[in-house]
Specification:
By secondary structure, the protein is of the alpha/beta class. It folds into three domains: 184 residues, Class I glutamine amidotransferase (GATase) domain (Rossmann fold), CATH 3.40.50.880; 189 residues, Rossmann fold; 96 residues, GMP Synthetase, Chain A, domain 3. 31% of the residues lie in helices and 23% in strands. Helix 5 packs across helix 6, helix 5 crosses helix 11 and helix 6 crosses helix 11. The protein starts with 20 loop residues before the first strand and ends in a 13-residue tail after the last strand.
Length: 528
């Protein structure tokens, strides 16, 4: 088999964008991708790029505007990140947010200094000059601040256009469509933040706002076709919407050069495999190879209780299975995956160099360093709701598009402790009941995720006048927009009661059910 060895974190190449584009230069903020998301919500195409991006690459992409993200550094620190200084000579409108504003001030000759008092949380902003960013907005705005430095003197030619109690220059404007704001318009805590961003996009940058899911499809298909050429691709199908959309995009780009591989790892929910084969092979006519590797995955997980080690072993086993299939298929150069941006953020990669690893996703940080494929990840910069819009535009069935998220490592990370066949059977039965009751109550589309977790605990119970000492199952139901944050769902008590009663009565070895009322943060959606 002729397969090039590639690094899984290799920066994907991009085709030229034949539409309005805005680039977000990332300087380490946890909200950087949220900025890009808000721009795309305004129907303007946007990509997140490193803050150090070369000015020639910016010219190649020909953006309408640039947004400098926030970040944890102080501009006067020796190791503080700065953009290519030539960026200021491009004549492109720039919006600096928080640290991004301080960069504009510092790099263009203004003064930034530590604040006498840190401004964090809700703040009242007074608009002194509404033109540009604050067009048609109230003069008093609620905003969300998070900064320890302030602008003490704007650069020459700039003027303060808004202030708060602790920031005399909470927003400024300068020549060439350059603006800075000390608050975060991208977060929900700034109620009119999206309007401020839209003013920058439409009033300042002159964007048309025409980017739609079909626009993304056209770009993704062209990009995949250009990268793959005459090569062959295998795609990891999991049964979820992410991998299904990724496979459909790649198939639209290269047709029969794609072979999808569905690995039955023994860690799936009930009826998972049959649904995948029905939709992707029989309805979409995509070449599909089904592999039963359940024994292999269970062997790899034997005795493992650490969740990170579970993820690493699952990721490594997936890749080894694909390599074996690739040898059977012939010359395979590419592996397509349905990686989304929340996976990248939590796993940490070249896209998020200043972010802390929360947990390794088997299709990002869990991949082995000697990966024998070049990755194709057409959804890498999208959130779940955007992927669903793309899936509908591609014509995928609604029940697949709206299927609740399911982790790549499957039920292995919903079993706390060692994964065994018996424990999988227990969890699979309990999980089926949770989903069944959520669907029966009409709540399936209104919650983000609903599932069961098998804990390592046993508790005393009474069943049939006899003492039991059996498993404790936890139920997790959350509401979220994109999976980055989440809150526990206030499900009606009668729905929870029905779940609990059915699990205890229908699932052998379980005598207690508890409900998780934790939010993300501080918790994560999954328990492992």
């Amino acid at each position: 088999m002729s397969v090039a060895v590639k690094n899984q974190n290799e920066t994907p190449t991009r085709s030229p964008v034949a539409q309005d584009t805005v680039l977000v230069l990332d300087f380490g903020s946890q909200y950087s991708q949220l900025i890009a998301r808000r721009v795309r919500e305004a129907k303007v195409y946007c990509e997140l790029v490193p803050g150090s991006i070369d000015v020639e690459e910016i010219r190649r992409r020909n953006p309408r505007g640039l947004i400098f993200s926030g970040g944890p550094a102080s501009v006067y620190d020796d190791r503080a990140p700065h953009p290519d200084p030539r960026v200021y000579a491009l004549g492109i409108p720039i919006l600096g947010i928080c640290y991004g504003m301080q960069l504009l001030a510092h790099d263009l000759g203004g003064d930034v200094a530590p604040a006498s008092r840190r401004e964090y949380g809700h703040a009242a902003l007074t608009v002194d000059s509404p033109a540009g960013l604050f067009t048609k907005l109230p003069r008093e705005l609620d905003v969300w601040m998070s900064h320890a430095d302030v602008i003490t003197r704007p650069p020459e030619g700039f003027q303060s256009i808004a202030h708060s109690i602790n920031s005399p220059c909470a927003a400024f404007a300068g020549p060439g469509g350059r603006f800075g704001i000390q608050f975060h318009p991208e977060v929900a805590h700034t109620p009119l933040g999206r309007d401020i961003l839209r003013n920058f996009l439409f009033e300042v940058c002159g964007c048309a706002g025409t980017w739609e899911p079909q626009s993304f499809i056209d770009m993704a298909v062209a990009d995949v076709r250009a990268r793959v050429g005459r090569g062959k691709v295998i795609c990891a199908l999991s049964g979820g919407v992410d991998s299904a959309v990724a496979a459909t995009l790649v198939h639209q780009a290269i047709g029969d050069q794609l072979t999808c591989v569905f690995v039955d790892n023994g860690l799936l929910r009930r009826q998972e495999a049959d649904r995948v084969i029905e939709v992707m092979s029989r309805q979409r006519h995509i070449t599909l190879r089904r592999v039963d590797a359940s024994d292999r995955f269970l062997a790899a997980l034997a005795g493992v209780t650490d969740p990170e080690e579970k993820r690493r072993r699952i990721g490594a086993t997936f890749i080894r299975v694909f390599e074996e299939i690739a040898r059977e298929l012939g010359d395979i150069d590419f592996l397509a995956q349905g990686t989304l941006y929340p996976d990248v953020i939590e796993s940490t990669s070249h896209d998020t160099t200043n972010a802390q690893t929360i947990k390794t996703h088997h299709n990002v940080g869990g991949l082995p360093p000697d990966l024998r494929f070049t990755l194709i990840e057409p959804l890498r910069y999208l959130f779940k709701d955007e992927v669903r819009q793309v899936g509908l535009a591609l014509g995928l069935p609604e029940d697949m598009v709206w299927r609740q998220p399911f982790p790549g490592p499957g039920l292995a990370i919903r079993i706390l402790g060692e994964v065994t066949r018996e424990r999988l059977d227990t969890l699979r039965a309990a999980d089926w009941i949770v989903i069944d009751e959520i669907k029966r109550s009409g709540l399936y589309r209104s919650v983000w995720q609903s599932f069961a977790i098998l804990t390592p605990l046993s508790s005393v119970g009474v069943m049939g006048d006899g003492r039991t000492y059996a498993n404790v199952v936890a139920v997790r139901i959350v509401q979220s927009d994109d999976g980055m944050t989440a809150d526990w769902a206030r499900v009606p008590y009668d729905v929870l009661a029905a779940m609990s009663s059915r699990i205890v009565n229908e699932v052998p070895g379980v005598n207690r059910v508890v409900y998780d009322i934790s939010s993300k943060p501080p918790s994560t959606i999954e328990w492992e």
